[in-house]
Specification:
Strand order of the largest sheet: 2-1-6-5-4-3
Strand content: over 45%
Order of helices and strands: HHEEHEEEE
Number of strands: 6
Largest sheet: 6 strands, mixed
Structural class: alpha+beta
Shape: globular
Distance between the termini: 38 Å
Helix content: 25-40%
Number of helices: 3
Radius of gyration: 13 Å
Amino acid sequence: MDNKTVLEKANLAIAKGDYEGFLSYCTDDTQWTFVGEQVLKGKEEVRKYMAVAYTEPPEFKVEKLVAENDYVVAIGRISMKNKEGRAVDYSYCDVWRFRDGKMAELKAFVIEKN
């Protein structure tokens, strides 16, 4: 399976609320960097983040997927519920680095839409 397909399948798992299914596409030492916010190191930190940030599966639309070598770039929109239960809309650009067919690193640029 190519890297683009791996990301598409992982995104389908997220949309269904299957967070463990999503994590199965990640390396154990995956690292997520939310530029200007925080860095998550390893599946356990990502799992904890998802438990808080994704109280309900996020709704997202991938507008573009660009793949080259070990990288896949996803550009799109995402809507997630905040702590008060209100949907908040964001634009994002995710840069994924793959290793051995799994998602090893994410650099996410996420901007809240007004």
